[in-house]
Design goal:
- The chain has 155 residues and is an alpha/beta fold.
- It has a single domain, classed as STAS domain (Transcription Regulator spoIIAA, 2-Layer Sandwich).
- 35% of the residues lie in helices and 17% in strands.
- It has five helices and seven strands, in the order βββαββαβαβαα.
- A five-stranded mixed β-sheet has the order 1-2-4-6-7, with helices on both faces.
- Strand 1 and strand 2 form a beta hairpin.
- Helix 1 packs parallel to helix 2.
- The longest helix is centred in the middle third of the chain and has 16 residues.
- The relative contact order is 0.14.
C-alpha cells in the first residue's frame, strides 16, 4: 500500500486484493493516519480486484471513526466489475462516499496527489479537466441519508 499525505488529507492506494491476509495492515495504516490528524481519507481502488469481509470491515470501521471526528472516507476509481458489483449489492455508497470522478474531492490538498492536478493519478488517467473541489453529490447524499435514516428503505 502506498500512502501519500499532506496536511489533513491522505491518499491510500489499495493493492489488488484486500482480504484477511492484509486487512490488518490496512487497518493499521488507516488508524495511524487518523491518529496523525487526517480528516479526509481517499482510498484509490484503481487496481483493487477483490475485497472480502475483513477488508469491508476495515473500511466500515474507518468510516465510523472518521464520521465521529467530522471527517470523511472516500473511495475513488472503483472500476473492477467484481468490486463495483459487490459495493452495489451491499449499497455501500449509502455509507461510504464512492466518488465516480476523483477530481471532485473536497480537500484541496489532494491536488498535490494528482487527484485534481498534474500529479501521478491525473497523468495516468490523462485528465485535463479543471478541478472542482466541491464534492457536492456525496455530501448531499450523506445529508439525505442522515436526515431520513428510517425512510431510506421505504423509497
Amino acid at each position: 500500500m502506498r500512502v501519500e499525505k499532506e496536511k489533513s488529507c491522505a491518499l491510500v492506494r489499495l493493492p489488488s486484493f484486500v482480504d484477511m491476509t492484509n486487512a490488518g495492515e490496512l487497518k493499521q495504516v488507516l488508524g495511524r493516519l487518523l491518529e496523525e490528524g487526517c480528516s479526509v481519507l481517499a482510498l484509490d481502488c484503481d487496481v483493487l480486484q477483490r475485497i472480502d469481509s475483513a477488508g469491508l470491515s476495515c473500511l466500515l470501521v474507518t468510516q465510523k471513526r472518521l464520521k465521529e471526528q467530522g471527517g470523511e472516507l472516500k473511495l475513488v476509481n472503483v472500476g473492477h466489475p467484481f468490486v463495483r458489483q459487490l459495493f452495489d449489492r451491499l449499497s455501500l455508497q449509502h455509507v461510504i462516499c464512492i466518488e465516480e470522478n476523483p477530481l471532485k474531492l473536497k480537500c484541496q490538498e489532494f491536488n498535490f496527489m494528482g487527484l485534481g492536478g498534474p500529479g501521478l493519478l491525473a497523468q495516468s488517467r490523462q485528465v485535463d479537466r479543471p478541478v472542482n473541489m466541491e464534492m457536492e453529490g456525496c455530501m448531499q447524499a450523506t445529508k439525505l441519508q442522515q436526515g431520513s435514516s428510517g425512510e431510506a428503505g421505504n423509497k
